Amino acid sequence: MRFLKYISIIVVLVSLFSCEKKTTKVLPESNFNDIIIDAFIIDEYKSQEIKLSVPGLSQNDSLIPVSSASIFIKGNGRIYYFTESDTLKGHYFSDSLFAPVVGTVYYLEVQYNSKKYTAGTYMLPVKPFFPLTYMLDTARDEYKITWVANSYDPEEQAMYEVLITPHVENDSLNIRAFYYSFNTVDVSQAFATEPKDIYFTHGSKIIEKKYSLTPRYAKYLRALASETMWQGTLFSEAPSNLPTNIEGGAMGYFSICAVSSIEINVP
Q: What are phi and psi for residue 32, nearest 5 degrees?
């Protein structure tokens, strides 16, 4: 079963040239004042990261980092303050290491330009999972992924991240791909265009991660997929504002996910 046709997004971390024609559609002026909050927190004990930005002036412009914001997360009887990195503008890291726990509600507050944005969420546990499968394409003498996860799962919604590092020394062609299991199947998802296969060489190392999703965060990711990876079919959904759990007018999402990982060494 080719579940990959429904669920994969590939981001190759090298500079590639695209054959698509670049457009210069200007975004509505109302979007210029909207801040984007990317607060993806996981249950690893570390300095957590939150990214702030605003849209560029046109559809193809990069996001513009937002500096000088005040950020904290409150939960489990603690307050964790975030400070902007000296080298990465718009990237804020917690001043102390922490890992969120299941059963606790966490609150986010961001203050920027005299405006306050707030959100609250919680974390679900992540279930054990089977590692991805792959096969050798003898014509190319390379491997390709054949299965990562079922696109439909009535028991658990989850996000899978696949990181592939080639064995060849000084080879910067690293692959990062995302896959999703949802408890619904959208029409645009079922008729989405089949993506290209992911190929990798002998001796590559694969790190596969599984993230737990709350129902509301899964709804956000489903809407994001409808706006991006499932577009271009007769059943594509009309563009719309993505759902968010952030109050105050910001875009983006505040999520907390439990994560489990598997390392695979390709022969």
A: -65, -25
At residue 120, does pLDDT exceed 60? yes
Number of Cβ atoms within 10 Å of the Cβ of 248: 15
Torsion of Cα atoms, 184 then 190 then 194 then 199, to 10°: 20
pTM of structure: 0.81
Q: How far apart are CA 94 and CA 80, in angstroms?
A: 6
Residue 180, token pair as written in the block: 């999703």
Bridge partners, 109 (sequence order): 72, 118
Other Cβ atoms within 10 Å of 70 Cβ, number: 14
Element (H, E) at 84: strand 78-84
User: Which residue segment(s) compose the domain that 222 sits in?
Assistant: 4-16+126-241+254-265
CA distance 252 to 246: 7
Closest among 149, 230, 229 to 187, alpha carbons compared: 230
Q: Determine, yes or no, domain membership for 85.
A: yes
Whether residue 200 sits in one domain with residue 95: no
Average pLDDT for the chain: 83
The proportion of the chain whose per-residue pLDDT surpasses 70, expressed as a percent, equals 77
Query: Which residue from 23, 53, 48 is spatially nearest to 37, judged by alpha carbons?
Result: 53
Q: Which residue has the tokens 């303050």?
A: 81
- 204, 232: one domain: yes
